[in-house]
Amino acid sequence: MFVRFFIDRPIFASVMAIIILMVGILSAIFLPISQYPEISPPTVQVTANYTGADARTVEQSVATPIEEQVNGAEDMMYMKSISSNDGSMNLTVTFQLGRDLELATVDVQNRVNLATSQLPQDVRDSGIQVKKQSPDMVLMVSLTSKLPQYDTLFLNNYAKINVYDALRRIEGVGDVNLFGDPDYGMRIWLDPDKLASYGITVSDVINAVNEQNIQAPAGQIGMPPAPKGQQFQMSLRVKGRLAEPSEFGNIILKANDDGSTVKIRDVARVEMGAKNYYTFARLNELGNSILLIYQLPGANALNVAQNVRKVMKEVSANFPEGVEYRIPYDTTRFVTSSIDEVMSTLYEALILVFLVVFIFLQNWRTTIIPMVCVP
Length: 375
What we know:
By secondary structure, the chain is α+β, with helices and mostly antiparallel strands.
């Protein structure tokens, strides 16, 4: 009886079909990205670095004091820490569903501050980072080059200066992690036999570098009170921190009674290299720079991946000749493929429904009216 009502009134049925179609289009445009509650609990990550320490030392002197303070945070479910032989510590604190991530981050930060006084001075100097991010990686960006002058160290440093900040500004990106340490470092290779012959210790070398490699203000000339007739006041600028291996080689370690001096170049070899060599990456047997992209909890992974590709296309226009980027790993490809399969299934269903309706109604006009509502 209800079906007969619409069959006998085709104009009314057409108007209703058009209204349903318009409502469907508006719903598709303004459909929220996340309509249901979060299914993955919010997480906060704490990272610290103890240069030169092994995993056991990091676990005992860094991870344990921080874990003792963070343990018991409001709505915390569990935490997991990883201490590595490169001196790094990564603590992931997982909270219950519904816990406000901003408040959770502040709570963890306050608790980490309580543990700061118990940490080694080197750890406090390098800083402790507390940030919110999803523990899962969205995608990986690789900078590579076939030219020998663009080695891994150059690519890492170039990525940190020209690509790193641009990716971190993308909406929805929680963190960008450069695989390995991208910084240049002045490496001083000490000769133990020469140190012993001059009676110099490693601590003496470290102290000499810290004392003589500084950025010191030189003051001004002509500052008040100045002699009468002084017309100019000029700021002095002197050479600051050392930059070349030869400059570090001239650092004085010891002054002898006869007026001679012992310099770093007399007991060591100085060269420009990487800050550390703990990690390296290869892509198709070529050295490269790897950037790992993490998303914020609740962010749209598809939008993050799309914006990352857009930004990389823009910044790659300024790459040196011979340097190119690739995205060898992308977790959103599975999501994209799933959406494509859903659309294919929808198209197939539309065709089948159209055939069934037409077979039963035996009329093109009558068939089009309900088919408008199907999408």
